[in-house]
Every structure is written in C-alpha cells, then in structure tokens.
Amino acid sequence: MGKTYGGLDDRLRAFIAAQPVYFVATAPERGGHVNVSPKGYADTFAVLDDTTVAYLDLTGSGVETIAHIRDNGRVTIMFCAFSGPPKILRLYGKGRVVTPSDPDFADLITRFGPHPGVRAVIVVECDRIADSCGFSVPLMEPAEDRNLLNEWAARKDAEQLRRYRMEKNLHSIDGLPALTAAEVEQLAQLR
C-alpha cells in the first residue's frame, strides 16, 4: 500500500499544498520527551526543491522542535488527508534552524506569508519520502483557520515578545538549549 519516493514530484507537492494542517515530530538524542506539534496556516510551509522543505516557526509556549533539531537534527513531518482520497505522507530528514543571523534567513522568509511572532525558519533535507494508506484517518472538513496565534503575537510589542521568548524559549521542557539570548535579541529587531 505504501510507496517511497525519490523526491517531491508535482502530485506530492499538490497534496502538500491542499492540506490545512501538518504535524512535526522530533525527539531528543538521550531520553526526554518526544514532541509532536500540529502546524497550520497554509502560507507557513514551502517546498524548496525535490528533497528540501521549510516551514515558518512561530513563537509559542514551547520550543521543543528547535531544541531537538539542534540536539540531533532528526525530524519527521506528516501530512494526512482529512478529505478526498485517503493518504498519509511523511517527510523524514535532517533539519536545521535558520534564525535572522543566518545568511539564508532573508531569502527564506520571503517564501512565507507575513506572520507576527516569527521565531525561525526550519529547513528539512529529506532523506526519506514515503506515503501510506491513511485508511483509518477520519474524514473531516476544516471550518476555518484559527488566527489566535497571529492575534496573540500581534498584541505584543517587540519588548513583550523579547521577554516572553527569554522566559519560555531558551530551553526545552527537558532543559535542552533552544534559542540563545543573542537570537532572542535579534528576533526583537524583526518588529
């Protein structure tokens, strides 16, 4: 039933673009908590080439993905068809965290829609692209995007976001380093 692909062809790219939500999974190298994060907003995911994807990482209460990727690079992104034919697509690979101090940031950020509270761009070099049936995934129709994360970030000024990131985004729940204080200061300049 499942198939492995050498790259993201036009059919897979269309499938990715049609999904209203995707999931990002990471884990620390030595024990600790496995993390799975749902991601929304259609304009926060981009296919860069046949084996490279990126997504916009927005400020939130946790910073597990950044910490885990910096710890070991391992990441899996999963798309599920909640409407239409059943399908699950997983992109396995090695991720890297791109922050404003990285020379790639200015170009990468143009691939996404404008969102307040940008923290980083996560770039994933896929080493395995595989689908599976998705026969047990329920059929659901999205009502609309929840804009609460954007609204939350938009209500904060640069200093409030800086303080929030300093409090919540320097370490993972397992104490792994995530953002550095210098990166938090650079992010404050985006606003």
UniProtKB/TrEMBL annotation:
Residues 8-130 form the Pyridoxamine 5'-phosphate oxidase N-terminal domain. This is Pyridoxamine 5'-phosphate oxidase. It comes from Thermostaphylospora chromogena.
